[in-house]
Amino acid sequence: MGKYKFESTEHELFRKTLRKFLAEEAEVHYDQWEKDHLIPLAFWHKLGQLGYLCPQVEEEYGGLGLDFSFGVIIQEELERVGSSLIGVGLHNDIVVPYIEAYGSAAQKSRWLPQCVTGETITAIAMTEPGTGSDLANIQTTAIRDGNHYIVNGQKTFITNGIHANLVVVAVKTNPYAEKKHRGISLIVIEEGTPGFTKGRKLEKVGMHAQDTAELFFEDCRVPVENLLGEEGKGFTYMMEKLQQERLAVAIAAQSAAEDMLNLTVDYVKSRQAFGKSISDFQNTQFKIAEMATKIELGKTFLESLIEEHIAGQDVVTKVSMAKYWITENARDIAAQCMQLHGGYGYMEEYKIARRYRDIPVMSIYAGTNEVMKMIIAKNIGL
């Protein structure tokens, strides 16, 4: 697919340099990382050294002060290599923006420079064993005790859970709030805080190199200066930031769909059956044409959304549409592309097999697609 309208010469150079870096430092190692079920910390540090971690952070905190359009390019190029690199996008475009938006000057000075270098890897802990999309009903508590909060609870399915040494945790600071969402706050908990432990690395169907874990808090004493923003505003903060998180998921799904189509076009041209190339069969041509059309529609919609988001517009309804439609489209494309690969598509050495495993979770995390449809329905007046 073509480049975005907002891409300048500077963007093109940025993409070209990043793609070359990833070819040398990620693509050649990616299969091993999948077998190891972990991306090495050394890769994070290299990303930081070259300015690919949190480039939007202000220069005074060590960042490059770039806008979200550069984050879009990073997300796309990482996803082109493989979905297990999603933790980098989460760090850059989902977690660190909470600190940028709601952190005090002291908190920003303390945490942001290391987020930019990769010395600090972040995670956001919302989901609990009994609570997914229903964030108002989280059970993890943080009760004030002098100059500390005492945190008790458990989080699960936490992206970057093993590597993270700075976690933004959604907690109940007022478990008795009449309106449940008004009792929620965000607290930043650092690795090494007594009472904070990491559980097992969770075994997933796909995204094998991405470290997903359980986190436990048992009488975990967190200094009150680690409260992010105001007490009781956590739910509002999460709602404000979910627009960019869901947009990021749509961008990843779109990139994966484009990559799968490219892989499949190359494959069907080279594969022979019944004395001719598979690409010569009308069925193949129709399937490819259908997928290419849907991908182009997704790209066009996404482009306008990214521009509106960068301009600071409220695009929650459209983002919910994009997150739902583009992730489901990617899932359909994964299945069709695997079919066009025939038996080889089911073999681990072919990238399409990995894609087939990695893509389905995109319609689950960052709010399930059913929740996206609820948001759309509500916002159009139903």
Notes on the protein architecture:
Helix content is 50%, strand content 15%. The protein contains 11 helices and 10 strands. The radius of gyration is 21 Å and the shape is globular. One of its GO terms (biological process) is butyrate catabolic process. Its EC number is 1.3.1.95. It is an enzyme of class 1 (oxidoreductase).
Chain-wise SSE layout:
Blueprint: H1 9-27, H2 30-36, H3 41-49, H4 68-81, H5 86-102, H6 105-117, E1 122-125, E2 141-145, E3 148-159, E4 166-172, E5 184-190, E6 196-201, E7 212-223, E8 227-228, H7 234-270, E9 272-273, E10 276-277, H8 282-310, H9 316-341, H10 351-358, H11 369-379
Parallel strand pairs: 1-4
Antiparallel strand pairs: 2-3, 3-7, 4-5, 5-8, 6-7, 9-10
Helix pairs in contact: 1-4, 4-5, 4-7, 5-6, 5-7, 7-8, 7-9, 8-9, 9-10, 9-11
How much is the average pLDDT? 96
Q: Round the Cα radius of gyration to an integer and report it.
A: 21 Å
Distance between the termini: 36 Å
The total tally of domains equals 3
Shape: globular
Which assembly state applies to the chains in this document? single chain
N-to-C order of helices and strands: HHHHHHEEEEEEEEHEEHHHH
Task: Sum this structure up briefly.
Residues 232-380 form the Acyl-CoA dehydrogenase/oxidase C-terminal domain. This protein has eleven helices and ten strands.
Give short descriptive properties of this protein:
50% helix; alpha+beta; four-stranded antiparallel β-sheet; 382 residues; 3 domains; 15% strand; acyl-CoA dehydrogenase activity; AcylCo_DH/oxidase_C; Butyryl-CoA Dehydrogenase, subunit A, domain 2; four-stranded mixed β-sheet; Butyryl-Coa Dehydrogenase, subunit A, domain 1; flavin adenine dinucleotide binding; 11 helices; EC 1.3.1.95; Butyryl-CoA Dehydrogenase, subunit A, domain 3
